[in-house]
Amino acid sequence: MTSAGTPRAFKRDGRVVVVGASLAGLRAAEALRAEGFTGSLTMIGDELGEPYDRPPLSKQVLTGWVRAGGTTLPRRRGLDAEWLLGVPAGGLDLATKHVRLADGRCVPFDRVLIATGVRARPWSVESEAALDGVFVVRTREHAESLRRALAAGPSRVLIIGAGFTGCEIASACRERGLPVTVAELAAAPLTGALGAVIGDVAADLQRTHGVDLRCGVEVTRLEGDARGRFRRAHFGDGGTVDADVAVVALGSIRNTEWLRGSGLAAGVWGVACDTGCRALDVSGRATEDVFAAGDVARCPHPLYEDRLISLEHWANAVEQAEVAAHNMVSAEADRRPCLSIPVFWSIQFGVNIKSVGVPTFADEVVVTQGSVDDHRFVAAYGCRGRVTAAVSFDSAKWLHHYRRLIETAAPFPPRCPMPDQPADARPVPVGLPGPGLLAQGATAVVTGRTRVSAASGPCTGTGGRRAG
Amino acid sequence: MTTARTHGTLRRIFDYSARADPYPLYAELRQNPVAVHEDAGYVVSTYHEITDLLHDPRLSSDVRNLSRPMPALEEGVTTAFIKKDPPEHDRLRRMAMRHFGPPHTPGLVAGMEGDLTSTVNSLIDDFAGKERIDVVDDFACRLPVTVTCHLLGVPREDERRFHRWVNDIMNSVDYDPETDPKERLDKGVQARKDLRRHLGGLVEQRHGRPGDGLLARLANDDGPDGRMTDAEIAATAKLLLIAGHETIVNLIANGMLTLLRHPQVLRRLRHQPDLVVPLVEELLRYEPPVHIVPWRAAYSDITVADTVIPKGSQIMLMLASGNRDPNRFHDPDRFDPDRRDNQHLGFGSGIHSCFGAALARRETQIALTELVRRLDRPRLVADPPPYRPSPVLRGPVHLDVEQGGD
């Protein structure tokens, strides 16, 4: 049992620390209070200011429709929490049950939620990343800087990486009428997430909207002028592109470094958990008092062979936060798993893209409804003869049906005549770049076997503000 | 799955004697989520099964996909998107939505609020001093056609005729050959013809003359899908007039009736006008204007709740029963305007979900807010009130209310 004794005692006056004050952290804190938790609640976040929503940062904020400061997350209830903002967590000591902040302060807990999320992967050459005009987009400060650069009317914007973020930013630039070059290592945009078939549709969509799309190319060097301003990018094939703005959209890095040596199974792939969001230790055992939620968590899903999957999806963060909060204040028998089917959306070039299931868990794909040429269709994904995911372009109202197919492990390809079925609906290989999810093992990533000593220096309170 | 009992239950639901309170019969029906009935085909009454079917791409709204075709009221007439399948349905609905809602026309309903409020209040002005009013005839019936005419951009002097046509059409919908004079049906058929011809004429006049109304916008559309034909525009306008009439009349009348049966909620609404938003949602669950989707066609074999519905079958969806399904809604027979997670079937669901939902919501919210604000101690004269014959579009035919006095 925990230091706070019975679940009822813990609920009344336990101490919960939430590390990470973004969507997952805030929703978990709200859920804890909604569950009747009246103990002390401490929110630790490396960014200053109120928790905010990130999806608009690569869309409406860049077009100028929404202010970067205007995406503060709505509060669903008062929190009565202590907020320790502006300082990242530096370590986790499970033996003495303290979170150590980067500035040396220590925060004691009975139970802790890890919701530290991810950060943007920076350009690999530091001096080139530091050039004026080179951006990443993850925080609202990032988005505001990029918006200002776009509003200044650059001669061309180069976007490095055509994942969802890169594509959305390209779309925002085109909406502003700016010339855009997108450079992608794979054969098409979105290939890593949705495979080559849908990637080709995304490529067509970009070219239709005037994007200079270069696939199968690697950006090797960012060149600046004498004043340190970005001017030109060099490609592996010897080509170049002149631009004033470069956006590095090469995915993310999970914020798990602070957990090194904690004894948790945490590493570059995230924090391994059980289905109830309890973190696993390096031996693969579920811990009693450490939970994880959101982008940083890596949970098994029974529909996907119990593989540990980490999803950087908005709805995933919300659901895991609610499950983690519930389980933190519940007795073993009342705990529940996080089993809903993942969903994801993106808006780019006027098209609403939505997915249900895990498209990377697939070997084949088939267009089941609508027309690829019109950029309006549903595609079903299958793995070894059963439906595992579906992706829609401007046809999201059908996804409920595909979610049911996924939940019931319906046979793939679905073989039912329906109105608006393409005449040549044949399954084709999904075309995911390997090694994909199917190649990954199902075990926890065993990292950080060496334990570090307890927090450096004496712990003398936190000195935070009480707010909310 | 098929039992004599569900058979009898459906028959009793359709019998007029059940109109005031069909809900206990719906509960009986839900014992068998999918039941076969000789006339109605497959009758589906539980929330999750209805929702699954409304999102099932194998369900068709095109009458030609029924193995036992239904008699058509009018032959060779352009049908509106409500009776079409994708991709044709999607194309027509998209072209209409371009001028009705976001993302292309985001401010339309909000922009109508002033007009809605003054229309509602001028109707209330007419009976403000009277001791007894009929919420249906004196108020609800007079609102939607006026609002839809404004939306379409129909000239004010035509509105009277539109009211008459819509009334004649609605009267003919309930036509029962055994009890009703044939004249009722004939009037409806004639009104459909007249309405269509008149709308066609209005569309023709609007070519090359861009204006604010929906007719003018559709007649001069230059969107990515091109332009609707004049017959398609007339069919769409006719759909909005008819689908947006009795539904709203019922929603407002059911709303007032429900409030009068829950005086504590009525009092709350008077002091807390914001309550009207969740209240109307709860109303759409608790007393929806459309109780039944009378038919959809199985385009191929569909399995629902372990029942195989064969291709070509007629499927009847009991929306109002799904709204009271205890497997979806906690304490479903309680009217609770504070209910959370209220994903009711009041506007249907899926690709055919109510086109005019945003306008219907605002229209009803304003109507109920103003009625509650301005009526002086309103009291029900008869409970239950008399109902219209239809079990599909269910609502009071009159709702007499007394106000003022001592």
Summarize the structure.
Chain A is α/β, with parallel strands linked by helices and 468 residues long. Chain A is built from nine helices and 30 strands.
Tags for this entry?
heterodimer, A: 468 residues, alpha/beta, FAD/NAD(P)-binding domain, Enolase-like, domain 1, 3 domains, 7-stranded mixed beta sheet, 29% strand, disordered C terminus, B: 406 residues, alpha+beta, Cytochrome p450, 5-stranded mixed beta sheet
Polypeptide structure, described:
The complex is a heterodimer of chains A (468) and B (406). With 468 residues, chain A is α/β, with parallel strands linked by helices. Helix content of chain A is 20%, strand content 29%. Chain A has three domains: 219 residues, FAD/NAD(P)-binding domain, CATH 3.50.50.60; 129 residues, 3-Layer(bba) Sandwich (FAD/NAD(P)-binding domain); 96 residues, 2-Layer Sandwich (Enolase-like, domain 1). A seven-stranded mixed β-sheet of chain A has the order 20-21-7-1-2-3-30, with helices on one face. Chain A has a six-stranded antiparallel β-sheet with strand order 24-25-28-27-26-29, sandwiched between helices. In chain A, helix 2 runs parallel beside helix 8. Chain A is globular. Chain B has 406 residues and is of the alpha+beta class. Chain B has a single domain, classed as Cytochrome P450 (Cytochrome p450, Orthogonal Bundle), CATH 1.10.630. The longest helix of chain B has 25 residues. Chain B is globular. Chain B starts with a helix and ends with a strand. The model of chain B has no long low-confidence stretch (mean pLDDT 93). Chains A and B meet through strand 26 and helix 9 of A and loops of B.
